From TrEMBL:
Associates with the 50S ribosomal subunit. It comes from Sediminicoccus rosea. The gene is der. This is GTPase Der. Transmembrane segments: none annotated. NCBIfam families: GTPase_EngA, small_GTP. Gene3D superfamilies: 3.30.300.20, P-loop containing nucleotide triphosphate hydrolases. GTP 2 binds at residues 203-210, 250-254, 315-318.
């Protein structure tokens, strides 16, 4: 049943229609190898895998193909008996929600540990769930593996399938079993013309990234709470606004490198950086009580270096008393420290209450449109001639530079190429003058702009608008 918070908050956005995709959920105690099995079935490393129990805290989804059928595979947090208000209680609630949405449950036990009291309790729970259950005895590699897997018969869930996710043993048999239990295939609806928008939510720990994703989706998709660093992996979700489909990825909080001293946290940060590189627009979530700090600037600069557009979500705005002062502090820091993303849009929100969140995606859409925009050669060179007229080109080694043409061969991000005699020697201050002028003339705040200098003839000289 939906929580009161979920019911009250709701969502103005529609989830991607996955009604035609069968859902297969992987469940089991912590550290039985669920994420390794998830990665093996998907065919690539998506979920973080480590020997530390409880690495997976949020449901992770991926579309994959089993026996020619597209399915939605779900990796879940480890099942543990715990009070609902605790972290482990919230992790179990997330796994229970995954089972509610599943067509097939894959219940994983560990042959090396043997069947535990928790396995028996969760097996009883699964029998009451009225879902097809496939029992998987993992870590059953080698000669003794199949024999050890026989112990799982006592759970009363049918024949256990002996596998080793780590060594890729028994996976083909598991896929066959999953295919046998899938519901009848439903024809997929035709794709619309709208292109997918790829977003990533980044920020420091405890800024409210997961709460924001839950609010956008209108459901408790991510585990949230007062503990910093709850999200360890990059978790993707899909939904739609009025302009089309959106894939959004919530990421682990990114702390200063000097404070990253654990292998698991290093993998979390690597997963966040990978999500940034796959995104088109980054939503940088800030804690409005703290403002724009050094680590936030580092994250924004990383996004700019990767050529990604950025929108700032100033979260926990409802807790700020002097809002004018808070806005001014952020604006001043942006002006002095993020000049390469001048004019970046800042949206004040409260992810917990939903206040202001309706303004966030329109800001993202505007920024995405600028990031994709191409300027015709004619308009670009009229602007370029005006810029050269306003400020004479400098002398280099006693000789005046000669810049002749400008083109924009690509967007995503907007890229200007300037041709001329010794163009590559153009001083940095004049390059900044051109970039700022381009951003202002063609209304491109908040997006990275690339400037390339070519001291050769212009191959686009005959191109027209």
């Amino acid at each position: 049943m939906a929580s009161e918070r979920e019911t009250e908050r709701g969502s103005q956005y529609r989830h991607r229609d996955t009604s035609t995709l069968p859902v297969v959920a992987i469940l089991g105690r912590p550290n039985v190898g669920k994420s390794s099995l998830f990665n093996r079935l998907v065919g690539r490393r998506i979920a973080i895998v480590d020997d530390t129990p409880g690495v997976t805290r949020d449901r992770k989804e991926a579309e994959t193909m089993i026996a020619g059928r597209n399915i939605l595979l779900v990796d879940t947090a480890g099942l543990e008996e715990a009070a609902p208000e605790t972290l482990f209680g919230r992790m179990r609630a997330s796994s229970e929600a995954a089972l509610e949405q599943a067509d097939v449950a894959v219940f994983v036990v560990d042959t090396k540990t043997g069947i535990t009291a928790s396995d028996r309790a969760f097996a009883n729970w699964l029998r009451r769930a009225r879902r097809p259950v496939i029992l998987v005895a993992n870590k059953a590699e080698g000669r003794g593996g199949a024999q050890a897997a026989l112990e799982a018969y006592e759970l009363g869930l049918g024949d256990p399938i002996a596998v080793s996710a780590e060594h890729n043993e028994g996976i083909a048999g598991l896929m066959e079993a999953i295919a046998e239990h899938l519901p009848e295939e439903v024809p997929e609806p035709e794709e619309g013309d709208a292109k997918l928008l790829r977003l990533a939510i980044l920020g420091r720990p405890n800024a409210g990234k997961s709460t924001l994703l839950n609010t956008l989706l209108g459901e408790e998709r991510m585990i949230t709470g007062p503990e910093p660093g709850l999200t360890r992996d990059a978790i993707a979700a899909a939904f739609q606004d009025e302009l089309g489909p959106i894939r959004i990825v919530d990421t682990a909080g990114m702390r200063k490198r000097a404070r990253i001293n654990h292998r698991l946290e290093e993998m979390s940060v690597a997963s966040s950086i990978s999500a940034l590189r796959e995104a088109e627009v980054v939503i940088l979530v800030l804690d409005a009580m703290l403002g724009l700090e050094e680590q936030d600037i580092r994250i924004a600069r990383l996004a700019e270096r990767e050529g990604r557009a950025v929108v700032i979500a100033l979260n926990k705005w409802d807790a700020v008393e002097d809002r004018a002062a808070a806005r001014n502090r952020v604006a001043d820091t942006l002006e002095t420290s993020l000049n390469q993303l001048r004019g970046i849009e800042v949206v004040t929100i409260s992810a917990a209450t939903g206040a202001g969140v309706d303004k966030l995606l329109p800001a993202v859409r505007r920024t995405h449109e600028r990031w994709n925009r191409r300027i015709g050669t004619g308009a670009l060179n009229r602007w370029f001639a005006n810029m050269l007229e306003r400020h004479q080109l400098p002398l280099v080694d006693g000789k005046r530079l000669k810049l002749r043409y400008a083109t924009m061969p690509k967007a995503r991000p907007p890229t200007i190429v300037i041709f001329g005699t010794r163009a590559e020697q153009l001083p940095l201050d004049y390059q900044r003058y051109l970039l700022n002028g381009f951003r202002e003339e063609f209304d491109m705040p908040g997006v990275p702009i690339r400037l390339q200098l070519r001291g050769t003839e212009n191959p686009y000289a005959e191109e027209t608008d």
